UniProtKB/TrEMBL annotation:
Family matches, as InterPro entries: Lipoprotein_NlpA
Protein name listed in UniProt: Methionine ABC transporter substrate-binding protein
Annotated source species: Nocardioides deserti
Transmembrane spans: 70-91
Family affiliation: Belongs to the NlpA lipoprotein family.
Region feature Disordered, mapped onto this chain: 1-60
Length: 363
Protein backbone atom coordinates (compact mmCIF):
# COMPACT_ATOMS: atom_id res chain seq x y z
CA UNK A 1 0.00 0.00 0.00
CA UNK A 2 1.55 3.36 -1.02
CA UNK A 3 1.90 6.14 1.50
CA UNK A 4 0.08 9.30 0.44
CA UNK A 5 2.35 11.93 -1.03
CA UNK A 6 3.24 14.71 1.35
CA UNK A 7 1.33 17.83 0.42
CA UNK A 8 3.31 20.97 0.56
CA UNK A 9 1.95 24.41 -0.10
CA UNK A 10 3.99 27.51 -0.26
CA UNK A 11 2.40 30.78 0.81
CA UNK A 12 3.29 34.18 -0.58
CA UNK A 13 6.95 35.06 -0.07
CA UNK A 14 7.76 37.26 2.85
CA UNK A 15 10.43 39.91 2.68
CA UNK A 16 13.63 38.71 4.19
CA UNK A 17 14.93 40.75 7.14
CA UNK A 18 18.54 41.69 6.87
CA UNK A 19 20.56 40.51 9.76
CA UNK A 20 23.94 42.16 9.78
CA UNK A 21 25.08 39.72 12.37
CA UNK A 22 27.74 37.35 11.01
CA UNK A 23 26.37 34.60 13.20
CA UNK A 24 22.97 34.89 11.51
CA UNK A 25 24.54 34.59 8.05
CA UNK A 26 26.35 31.46 9.13
CA UNK A 27 23.25 29.90 10.65
CA UNK A 28 20.88 27.41 9.11
CA UNK A 29 19.01 28.48 5.97
CA UNK A 30 15.47 29.81 6.35
CA UNK A 31 12.96 27.19 5.15
CA UNK A 32 11.49 29.82 2.79
CA UNK A 33 14.81 30.74 1.29
CA UNK A 34 15.32 30.08 -2.41
CA UNK A 35 17.47 27.01 -3.14
CA UNK A 36 20.93 27.52 -4.38
CA UNK A 37 21.78 26.79 -7.96
CA UNK A 38 23.22 23.32 -8.57
CA UNK A 39 26.91 23.05 -9.08
CA UNK A 40 28.47 21.18 -11.94
CA UNK A 41 29.02 18.23 -9.64
CA UNK A 42 25.42 17.93 -8.56
CA UNK A 43 23.23 14.86 -9.17
CA UNK A 44 21.05 14.31 -12.28
CA UNK A 45 18.07 14.40 -10.01
CA UNK A 46 18.39 18.14 -9.55
CA UNK A 47 18.66 20.24 -6.39
CA UNK A 48 16.74 19.28 -3.28
CA UNK A 49 13.60 21.23 -2.44
CA UNK A 50 13.13 21.93 1.23
CA UNK A 51 9.91 20.66 2.88
CA UNK A 52 8.08 22.10 5.85
CA UNK A 53 10.12 20.10 8.32
CA UNK A 54 13.28 21.70 7.12
CA UNK A 55 14.64 18.44 5.69
CA UNK A 56 16.55 18.51 2.45
CA UNK A 57 14.80 15.32 1.15
CA UNK A 58 13.19 16.08 -2.25
CA UNK A 59 9.36 16.03 -2.27
CA UNK A 60 9.02 14.97 -5.92
CA UNK A 61 11.78 12.95 -7.42
CA UNK A 62 12.40 13.54 -11.10
CA UNK A 63 12.43 10.34 -13.16
CA UNK A 64 15.82 8.95 -13.91
CA UNK A 65 16.91 8.66 -17.51
CA UNK A 66 17.70 5.00 -16.81
CA UNK A 67 14.01 4.29 -16.09
CA UNK A 68 12.68 5.36 -19.47
CA UNK A 69 13.52 2.03 -21.25
CA UNK A 70 11.69 0.11 -18.52
CA UNK A 71 8.65 2.37 -18.79
CA UNK A 72 8.62 2.04 -22.57
CA UNK A 73 8.84 -1.78 -22.32
CA UNK A 74 5.92 -1.82 -19.89
CA UNK A 75 3.79 0.25 -22.26
CA UNK A 76 4.62 -2.07 -25.15
CA UNK A 77 3.69 -5.12 -23.06
CA UNK A 78 0.33 -3.57 -22.14
CA UNK A 79 -0.36 -2.81 -25.79
CA UNK A 80 0.44 -6.40 -26.77
CA UNK A 81 -1.88 -7.82 -24.10
CA UNK A 82 -4.71 -5.51 -25.13
CA UNK A 83 -4.18 -6.47 -28.76
CA UNK A 84 -4.32 -10.18 -27.93
CA UNK A 85 -7.52 -9.72 -25.95
CA UNK A 86 -9.12 -7.95 -28.89
CA UNK A 87 -8.04 -10.69 -31.28
CA UNK A 88 -9.18 -13.50 -28.99
CA UNK A 89 -12.51 -11.85 -28.22
CA UNK A 90 -13.08 -11.17 -31.88
CA UNK A 91 -12.24 -14.82 -32.65
CA UNK A 92 -14.79 -16.04 -30.10
CA UNK A 93 -17.45 -13.80 -31.58
CA UNK A 94 -16.60 -14.98 -35.06
CA UNK A 95 -16.72 -18.66 -34.01
CA UNK A 96 -20.07 -18.13 -32.30
CA UNK A 97 -21.42 -16.49 -35.43
CA UNK A 98 -20.36 -19.52 -37.50
CA UNK A 99 -22.28 -22.02 -35.31
CA UNK A 100 -25.65 -23.26 -36.55
CA UNK A 101 -28.73 -24.21 -34.55
CA UNK A 102 -31.31 -26.84 -35.52
CA UNK A 103 -34.53 -27.89 -33.77
CA UNK A 104 -35.18 -31.60 -34.35
CA UNK A 105 -38.43 -33.36 -33.38
CA UNK A 106 -38.32 -37.06 -32.45
CA UNK A 107 -40.35 -39.71 -30.66
CA UNK A 108 -38.11 -41.17 -27.97
CA UNK A 109 -35.60 -38.40 -27.18
CA UNK A 110 -34.48 -40.34 -24.10
CA UNK A 111 -32.76 -42.95 -26.28
CA UNK A 112 -29.03 -42.58 -25.48
CA UNK A 113 -27.91 -42.36 -29.10
CA UNK A 114 -29.51 -38.92 -29.43
CA UNK A 115 -26.92 -37.59 -26.98
CA UNK A 116 -24.17 -39.12 -29.13
CA UNK A 117 -25.75 -37.49 -32.17
CA UNK A 118 -25.87 -34.06 -30.50
CA UNK A 119 -22.23 -34.32 -29.44
CA UNK A 120 -21.09 -35.36 -32.91
CA UNK A 121 -23.07 -32.51 -34.47
CA UNK A 122 -21.66 -30.01 -31.95
CA UNK A 123 -18.13 -31.03 -32.99
CA UNK A 124 -19.06 -29.91 -36.49
CA UNK A 125 -20.45 -26.58 -35.33
CA UNK A 126 -24.14 -27.56 -35.27
CA UNK A 127 -26.12 -27.20 -32.04
CA UNK A 128 -29.07 -29.62 -32.21
CA UNK A 129 -32.01 -29.20 -29.84
CA UNK A 130 -33.90 -32.48 -29.67
CA UNK A 131 -37.63 -32.01 -29.00
CA UNK A 132 -39.52 -35.06 -27.73
CA UNK A 133 -43.05 -35.99 -28.84
CA UNK A 134 -45.29 -38.81 -27.65
CA UNK A 135 -47.94 -38.36 -30.33
CA UNK A 136 -47.11 -39.26 -33.94
CA UNK A 137 -49.56 -36.64 -35.21
CA UNK A 138 -47.61 -33.64 -33.89
CA UNK A 139 -44.07 -33.54 -35.40
CA UNK A 140 -45.10 -33.06 -39.04
CA UNK A 141 -47.35 -30.02 -38.46
CA UNK A 142 -44.60 -28.61 -36.23
CA UNK A 143 -42.11 -28.77 -39.12
CA UNK A 144 -44.62 -27.38 -41.59
CA UNK A 145 -45.40 -24.42 -39.32
CA UNK A 146 -41.73 -23.67 -38.64
CA UNK A 147 -41.72 -24.73 -34.99
CA UNK A 148 -39.19 -27.43 -35.93
CA UNK A 149 -36.52 -27.44 -38.63
CA UNK A 150 -36.76 -31.18 -39.22
CA UNK A 151 -38.08 -34.36 -37.65
CA UNK A 152 -37.08 -38.01 -37.46
CA UNK A 153 -39.72 -40.46 -36.28
CA UNK A 154 -41.64 -41.78 -39.30
CA UNK A 155 -41.37 -43.97 -42.37
CA UNK A 156 -42.21 -42.97 -45.92
CA UNK A 157 -45.74 -44.41 -45.85
CA UNK A 158 -46.61 -42.36 -42.77
CA UNK A 159 -45.25 -39.19 -44.37
CA UNK A 160 -47.16 -39.87 -47.59
CA UNK A 161 -50.41 -40.26 -45.68
CA UNK A 162 -49.76 -37.00 -43.85
CA UNK A 163 -48.88 -35.05 -47.00
CA UNK A 164 -52.00 -36.21 -48.84
CA UNK A 165 -54.34 -35.65 -45.90
CA UNK A 166 -52.89 -32.23 -44.98
CA UNK A 167 -52.16 -31.11 -48.55
CA UNK A 168 -48.57 -30.60 -47.46
CA UNK A 169 -45.22 -31.29 -49.11
CA UNK A 170 -42.72 -32.38 -46.48
CA UNK A 171 -39.82 -34.28 -48.03
CA UNK A 172 -37.28 -36.89 -46.91
CA UNK A 173 -33.71 -35.63 -46.69
CA UNK A 174 -32.09 -38.87 -45.53
CA UNK A 175 -32.75 -42.40 -44.28
CA UNK A 176 -32.07 -43.84 -40.83
CA UNK A 177 -33.29 -47.45 -40.48
CA UNK A 178 -36.06 -49.94 -41.06
CA UNK A 179 -37.52 -51.49 -37.92
CA UNK A 180 -39.54 -54.69 -37.85
CA UNK A 181 -43.07 -54.45 -36.55
CA UNK A 182 -43.75 -57.10 -33.90
CA UNK A 183 -46.73 -58.84 -32.34
CA UNK A 184 -46.40 -59.04 -28.54
CA UNK A 185 -48.39 -60.74 -25.81
CA UNK A 186 -48.19 -61.01 -22.03
CA UNK A 187 -50.51 -64.02 -21.87
CA UNK A 188 -49.30 -66.29 -24.65
CA UNK A 189 -45.91 -67.55 -25.84
CA UNK A 190 -46.82 -68.30 -29.45
CA UNK A 191 -49.31 -67.33 -32.12
CA UNK A 192 -50.81 -70.80 -31.96
CA UNK A 193 -51.73 -70.35 -28.31
CA UNK A 194 -53.89 -67.30 -28.99
CA UNK A 195 -57.49 -68.60 -28.84
CA UNK A 196 -60.09 -68.03 -31.53
CA UNK A 197 -62.24 -64.98 -30.86
CA UNK A 198 -59.59 -63.25 -28.76
CA UNK A 199 -58.89 -59.54 -29.30
CA UNK A 200 -55.67 -58.22 -30.80
CA UNK A 201 -54.83 -54.51 -31.08
CA UNK A 202 -53.16 -52.63 -33.92
CA UNK A 203 -52.05 -48.94 -34.17
CA UNK A 204 -54.80 -46.57 -35.26
CA UNK A 205 -52.72 -44.42 -37.64
CA UNK A 206 -53.36 -45.43 -41.24
CA UNK A 207 -49.85 -46.43 -42.33
CA UNK A 208 -48.92 -48.50 -39.29
CA UNK A 209 -52.38 -50.02 -39.15
CA UNK A 210 -52.08 -51.34 -42.70
CA UNK A 211 -48.63 -52.77 -41.95
CA UNK A 212 -49.88 -54.37 -38.71
CA UNK A 213 -52.85 -55.97 -40.48
CA UNK A 214 -50.56 -57.47 -43.12
CA UNK A 215 -48.42 -58.86 -40.28
CA UNK A 216 -51.46 -60.45 -38.58
CA UNK A 217 -52.46 -62.00 -41.87
CA UNK A 218 -48.94 -63.39 -42.35
CA UNK A 219 -49.19 -64.89 -38.85
CA UNK A 220 -52.46 -66.63 -39.78
CA UNK A 221 -54.66 -64.68 -37.36
CA UNK A 222 -56.78 -62.73 -39.89
CA UNK A 223 -57.70 -62.61 -43.56
CA UNK A 224 -57.81 -59.38 -45.59
CA UNK A 225 -60.24 -59.07 -48.46
CA UNK A 226 -57.73 -57.07 -50.53
CA UNK A 227 -54.97 -59.56 -49.88
CA UNK A 228 -53.11 -56.89 -47.89
CA UNK A 229 -51.74 -53.55 -49.10
CA UNK A 230 -50.31 -50.39 -47.65
CA UNK A 231 -53.88 -49.10 -47.64
CA UNK A 232 -55.53 -51.94 -45.70
CA UNK A 233 -57.68 -50.88 -42.73
CA UNK A 234 -60.12 -52.51 -40.32
CA UNK A 235 -62.83 -52.52 -42.97
CA UNK A 236 -60.59 -54.83 -45.01
CA UNK A 237 -60.68 -57.57 -42.35
CA UNK A 238 -62.75 -60.60 -43.33
CA UNK A 239 -64.24 -61.32 -39.92
CA UNK A 240 -65.78 -64.64 -40.92
CA UNK A 241 -62.45 -65.99 -42.12
CA UNK A 242 -60.36 -64.55 -39.28
CA UNK A 243 -59.41 -66.26 -36.02
CA UNK A 244 -59.29 -63.10 -33.89
CA UNK A 245 -61.04 -59.77 -33.57
CA UNK A 246 -59.02 -56.64 -34.24
CA UNK A 247 -59.29 -53.28 -32.50
CA UNK A 248 -57.38 -50.07 -33.20
CA UNK A 249 -55.63 -48.05 -30.47
CA UNK A 250 -53.25 -45.12 -30.37
CA UNK A 251 -49.76 -46.45 -31.09
CA UNK A 252 -48.57 -45.36 -27.64
CA UNK A 253 -51.34 -47.40 -25.96
CA UNK A 254 -51.02 -50.74 -27.72
CA UNK A 255 -48.23 -51.96 -25.41
CA UNK A 256 -49.71 -50.57 -22.20
CA UNK A 257 -53.02 -52.28 -22.97
CA UNK A 258 -51.57 -55.78 -23.21
CA UNK A 259 -52.96 -56.80 -19.79
CA UNK A 260 -56.42 -56.62 -21.32
CA UNK A 261 -55.60 -58.07 -24.73
CA UNK A 262 -54.49 -61.38 -26.18
CA UNK A 263 -51.86 -59.52 -28.14
CA UNK A 264 -50.94 -56.23 -29.79
CA UNK A 265 -48.76 -55.05 -32.64
CA UNK A 266 -46.33 -52.60 -31.00
CA UNK A 267 -44.21 -49.98 -32.72
CA UNK A 268 -40.51 -50.17 -31.88
CA UNK A 269 -40.60 -46.80 -30.11
CA UNK A 270 -42.79 -48.23 -27.37
CA UNK A 271 -41.45 -51.77 -26.90
CA UNK A 272 -38.83 -51.16 -24.21
CA UNK A 273 -40.81 -48.38 -22.57
CA UNK A 274 -43.51 -50.91 -21.82
CA UNK A 275 -40.99 -53.37 -20.35
CA UNK A 276 -41.21 -55.69 -23.34
CA UNK A 277 -38.34 -57.53 -25.02
CA UNK A 278 -37.87 -57.44 -28.78
CA UNK A 279 -36.86 -61.09 -28.74
CA UNK A 280 -40.20 -62.06 -27.22
CA UNK A 281 -42.24 -60.97 -30.23
CA UNK A 282 -44.55 -63.77 -31.39
CA UNK A 283 -44.23 -62.63 -35.00
CA UNK A 284 -42.66 -59.78 -36.96
CA UNK A 285 -42.25 -58.62 -40.55
CA UNK A 286 -38.96 -58.66 -42.44
CA UNK A 287 -37.27 -55.25 -42.64
CA UNK A 288 -34.62 -56.61 -45.03
CA UNK A 289 -37.22 -57.32 -47.73
CA UNK A 290 -36.57 -55.02 -50.75
CA UNK A 291 -40.30 -54.29 -50.81
CA UNK A 292 -39.94 -52.76 -47.34
CA UNK A 293 -38.42 -49.46 -48.61
CA UNK A 294 -41.67 -47.52 -48.03
CA UNK A 295 -41.20 -48.39 -44.36
CA UNK A 296 -37.73 -46.85 -44.22
CA UNK A 297 -37.54 -44.28 -41.43
CA UNK A 298 -36.40 -40.85 -42.54
CA UNK A 299 -35.41 -37.31 -41.65
CA UNK A 300 -38.15 -35.00 -43.01
CA UNK A 301 -37.95 -31.28 -43.80
CA UNK A 302 -39.95 -28.64 -45.64
CA UNK A 303 -39.72 -28.98 -49.43
CA UNK A 304 -37.75 -25.72 -49.71
CA UNK A 305 -35.11 -27.08 -47.33
CA UNK A 306 -34.30 -30.36 -49.10
CA UNK A 307 -30.95 -29.02 -50.33
CA UNK A 308 -30.05 -27.21 -47.11
CA UNK A 309 -26.37 -28.10 -46.47
CA UNK A 310 -26.77 -28.14 -42.69
CA UNK A 311 -29.62 -30.68 -42.82
CA UNK A 312 -27.71 -32.84 -45.29
CA UNK A 313 -24.69 -32.70 -43.00
CA UNK A 314 -26.80 -33.84 -40.03
CA UNK A 315 -27.94 -36.87 -42.03
CA UNK A 316 -24.30 -37.74 -42.76
CA UNK A 317 -23.42 -37.35 -39.09
CA UNK A 318 -26.24 -39.75 -38.15
CA UNK A 319 -25.21 -42.29 -40.77
CA UNK A 320 -21.44 -42.07 -40.22
CA UNK A 321 -21.12 -41.74 -36.44
CA UNK A 322 -20.51 -45.26 -35.14
CA UNK A 323 -21.78 -44.49 -31.64
CA UNK A 324 -25.10 -43.38 -33.13
CA UNK A 325 -25.42 -46.41 -35.40
CA UNK A 326 -24.55 -48.83 -32.60
CA UNK A 327 -26.95 -47.05 -30.27
CA UNK A 328 -29.87 -47.35 -32.68
CA UNK A 329 -29.27 -51.08 -33.12
CA UNK A 330 -28.96 -51.57 -29.36
CA UNK A 331 -32.18 -49.69 -28.59
CA UNK A 332 -34.00 -51.76 -31.21
CA UNK A 333 -32.88 -54.98 -29.55
CA UNK A 334 -30.64 -55.75 -32.49
CA UNK A 335 -33.53 -55.69 -34.98
CA UNK A 336 -32.91 -52.40 -36.80
CA UNK A 337 -31.54 -52.52 -40.34
CA UNK A 338 -29.45 -49.34 -40.78
CA UNK A 339 -29.78 -47.47 -44.08
CA UNK A 340 -27.96 -44.88 -46.18
CA UNK A 341 -30.43 -44.92 -49.07
CA UNK A 342 -29.88 -42.04 -51.55
CA UNK A 343 -32.28 -39.13 -51.09
CA UNK A 344 -33.49 -39.44 -54.68
CA UNK A 345 -34.73 -42.99 -54.05
CA UNK A 346 -36.52 -41.93 -50.88
CA UNK A 347 -38.24 -39.06 -52.69
CA UNK A 348 -39.24 -41.34 -55.57
CA UNK A 349 -40.74 -43.83 -53.12
CA UNK A 350 -42.65 -41.02 -51.41
CA UNK A 351 -44.11 -39.79 -54.70
CA UNK A 352 -45.21 -43.32 -55.60
CA UNK A 353 -46.93 -43.91 -52.27
CA UNK A 354 -48.59 -40.48 -52.43
CA UNK A 355 -49.91 -41.21 -55.93
CA UNK A 356 -51.25 -44.59 -54.79
CA UNK A 357 -52.86 -42.96 -51.75
CA UNK A 358 -54.65 -40.34 -53.86
CA UNK A 359 -55.80 -42.99 -56.30
CA UNK A 360 -57.11 -45.14 -53.46
CA UNK A 361 -59.08 -42.19 -52.09
CA UNK A 362 -60.79 -41.66 -55.44
CA UNK A 363 -61.95 -45.29 -55.70
Amino acid sequence: MQRPAHRWTQGPPRARRRDPSPSAAAGPADHHSRPRAATSGSSDEGPPVSNTSGSSTPLIEAPSRRRWPLLLAALVAVAVVVGLLVVLTGGDDEAAADRRSVRLGVVGASDPYWTDFQEAAADEGIDVEVIDFSDYNQPNPAVSEGELDMNQFQHIVFLADYNVAADDDLQPVGATAIYPLGLHSKQYDSVEEIPDGATVAVPNDASNQARALVLLQSAGLIELTSGGTIFSDLADVDEAASRVEVTALDAALTATSLDDLAGAVVNNDFVERAGLDFDDALAQDDPADPKALPYANIFAVRADDVDDPTYRELVEIYQETQAVQDGVVEVSGGTAVMLDTPVEELQASLREVEDDTRAAEQD
